[in-house]
Amino acid sequence: MNKPIAKTEQVAFRAADFYARSKARLSFDVPPGLFDPNIIPASGDPGTDKMLEIVAREQPVRPAAVLIAVVDHPEPTILLTQRSAHLSDHAGQIAFPGGKIDATDSSPLDAALREAEEEVGLSRDFVEPIGYLDLYGTAFGFRILPTVARVRPGFQLSINHSEVDDAFEVPLSFLMNPLNHQVHSKEFRGMERFYYAMPFAERYIWGATAGMLRVLYERIYSS
User: Fold this and answer.
1) pLDDT tens digits, 96-153
2) Are the C-beta atoms of 70 and 149 separated by less than 8 Å?
3) Which of these, 89, 126, 127, 194, could form a disulfide with 155 (CB 3.0-4.6 Å)?
4) The Nudix hydrolase domain covers which part of the protein (predicted)?
5) Cα–Cα distance between 42 and 182 in angstroms, integer?
6) What's the start-to-end Cα distance of the chain, in Å?
């Protein structure tokens, strides 16, 4: 299956409007479902949510944090990574900088900033956090809290190749255009699972990363 999402309209994208809407609609309130094992976070996709229910019966759903880094160019972009091909989980996939929340992290925000520094060398001195997006559950057993942040240009990245093969930027206007939001499907544990995909040039952005970008679009532009 490969088709645009139904019942969506292209928004007139303006960077100033995006930042204003983000600041008005996001906060740093940590949702209880991030750490409460009795709460199973949703993804917005019934198939993924069903898979997460199955996974949650087999193992703890682990808290994680990612950084949705909006680079404040005249035409803003989002910083993404391509995970190293040798990793045991999600090898070669497109992702946000991020990872599991450690006990030493003072907050999910701190975890996201730490992971961005460790993976790609993004200094937190360039990062202006805006707020948390909705908690997002994945079929692979993670409960992810994304931090949306405005990033000042001029940073120098240092790629940690034990975790990441590459870092690159995609125009925010492309990712916030629902005409670029496709639904693909594949079989997972004997069930057909549907997921978002936003192919960009040679980059295949899909799964949880595309799902969280879709949530960002809906949260910022749904009303």
Assistant:
1) 999 999 999 999 999 999 999 999 999 999 999 999 999 998 866 788 999 999 999 9
2) yes
3) 126
4) 61-196
5) 19
6) 29
Q: What is the pLDDT of residue 47?
A: 61
Place of tokens 């069930």: 191
**Host H or E run for residue 164:** strand 164-171
Residues 6+ apart with CB under 8 A from 202: none
216 backbone dihedrals φ, ψ, rounded to 5°: -60, -45
Name the β-bridge partners of 81.
95, 167
Q: How many Å apart are CA 203 and CA 178, to the nearest integer?
A: 17
Q: Which two tokens stand for residue 81?
A: 């990574």
Query: What is the C-alpha to C-alpha distance for residues 134 and 26, in angstroms, rounded to an integer?
Result: 9
Cα(120)–Cα(143) distance, integer angstroms:
22
Q: Give the number of other CB atoms < 10 A from CB of residue 128.
A: 12
Q: State the pTM of this model.
A: 0.88
Q: What is the pLDDT of residues 159-174, one digit of tens each?
A: 999 889 999 999 999 9
Taking the C-alpha atoms of residue 213 and residue 182, their distance in angstroms, rounded to an integer, is 12
Q: What is the pLDDT of residues 2-30, one digit of tens each?
A: 444 434 556 667 889 999 999 999 999 99
